[in-house]
Request: fold
Amino acid sequence: MFKLSDYFILIAVSVSFVLSAYLWFGGFKDLGIFTAIWVPSILAFGIYFKLAVVSARREVS
Reply:
């Protein structure tokens, strides 16, 4: 069900989340918030390309 690209997206989201929490609790609140914005952006990027692949498969069939 999951492809290798899905795992890369999940790893990128996890790293971004951990980095933002580290920055936030380390006293760099502005950088922590900026990095936290990456999490939904990366997820949206992954969902968009996954839907593009599904759409391309549907057109071929």
